[in-house]
Design goal:
2 copies of one chain form a homodimer. Chain A has one domain: Tetracycline Repressor, domain 2 (Orthogonal Bundle). In chain A, 76% of the residues lie in helices and 0% in strands. Chain A contains 9 helices and no strands. In chain A, helix 1 runs antiparallel to helix 2, helix 5 runs parallel beside helix 8 and helix 8 runs antiparallel to helix 9. The longest helix of chain A has 28 residues. The interface between A and B is large, with 48 and 48 residues. The structure holds a DNA duplex.
Chain lengths: 195, 195
DNA sequence: TATTTTCTTTACCATTCGGTCAACAAAAAC
DNA sequence: GTTTTTGTTGACCGAATGGTAAAGAAAATA
């Protein structure tokens, strides 16, 4: 009946995600998106509506990927400590992965306050909530396994670990050397060992 | 000999700082600066050069204020634990202070990667370095005082605390409730007590 | 092959961006 | 009060912004 698309929507989303991830929503222009995706701007609008809805699709993709990564890493760990360790190490590797822009689109979007509507803010908050919940569950399993004492403040420590991962990303964005991030990682693990 | 300025440079800097602090460098337009400072854009250029150099003056002002606040808070504390406690509580209050935009200009600027030159990045990095150094000194004094054991990893823990403060600011920017930040604060203090 | 429907392209739109310039206003020095 | 120098003003600049409309190209159906 009609002409077919000559691009893969997922490929375009990945390319656009890469751009937003690098510069944030506001600083990524339609010109950037045209170059980065290889699509004409009218094709982008035809396929995705407008810049904002394209961004939301990318953000949803990103949030889903990170959540899946977190679930997979913590699920594969043999102990609570190993789960936390592997998650922190992943956060460091994640930033320095050369195939990736570095930093974190969700943190970037959280800081771009006035650019985003409630729906976007909710997606951002959902990743932080998910991270906190998963880490808390990991710690609670550690308590059950005897890795941590009975009165261990799983909720609080999960919040602290979640905050620390965001802080490590900020450090990395401020050009902190890998060694500084690794030092933070070791200190967190040691504080966790302390009780 | 000539006409005098009819504005106070420091007042203008404070007003501009407030704007940059709210939206970041790129999202703050000259129109915003005109409205926020009450100055015509040509007057701004006459007094401060251009948008970038005005921003740098504001950033320097901000960095100096935060450093002074950190020094004052830690200097006034009677113990190492109290110093850390008061600094973390200040970070929370700082965000929810109604006279202030909330968030942190330095973190915001660290995330605005492609907007800034080396000089700006250096100012950003200098605040993080300063914070880490001060907290480390505070912990080392705690070791001397017997608050922490001899082998205590002051450098690592100082890095972790610094990362956590940045993470708390990110959490707050993502609309986390005060209670969540306070929970992180309590967990950090308890982890510190654990050893 | 002709038709129909969608995708793609080019050119364009109004608006906003940071920045500038020339005219004007005011205050200190004489 | 005149002169001189600086601050202030408003109009203006080219470039870039997100977004759109209409024409052209291609593929599946008939």
């Amino acid at each position: 009946m009609a002409r077919t698309r000559n691009f893969d929507e997922n490929q375009i989303l990945e390319a656009a995600l890469h751009l937003f991830w690098e510069k944030g929503y506001a600083a990524t222009s339609l010109h950037d998106l045209e170059k980065g995706t290889g699509l004409n701007r009218a094709s982008i609008y035809n396929a995705f509506g407008n810049k904002r809805s394209l961004f939301k699709r990318c953000l949803a993709l990103y949030v889903g990927q990170v959540k899946a990564m977190l679930d997979s890493i913590t699920g594969a760990a043999a102990s609570s400590r190993e789960a936390v360790k592997n998650w922190l190490l992943f956060v460091i590797d994640f930033h320095f992965n050369p195939e990736t822009p570095g930093g974190c689109l969700v943190i970037l979007s959280a800081l771009e306050r006035y650019q985003h509507d409630q729906e976007t803010k909710e997606m951002v908050a959902s990743l932080f909530r998910h991270e906190r919940k998963v880490v808390q569950r990991v710690l609670e399993e550690g308590v059950q396994r005897g890795e941590f004492p009975a009165g261990f403040d799983c909720a609080g420590v999960a919040g602290a670990i979640t905050a620390t991962t965001s802080g490590m990303v900020v450090m990395a964005m401020a050009d902190a050397p890998v060694s500084a991030l690794q030092e933070v990682f070791r200190a967190v693990m040691r504080l966790l060992d302390g009780k």
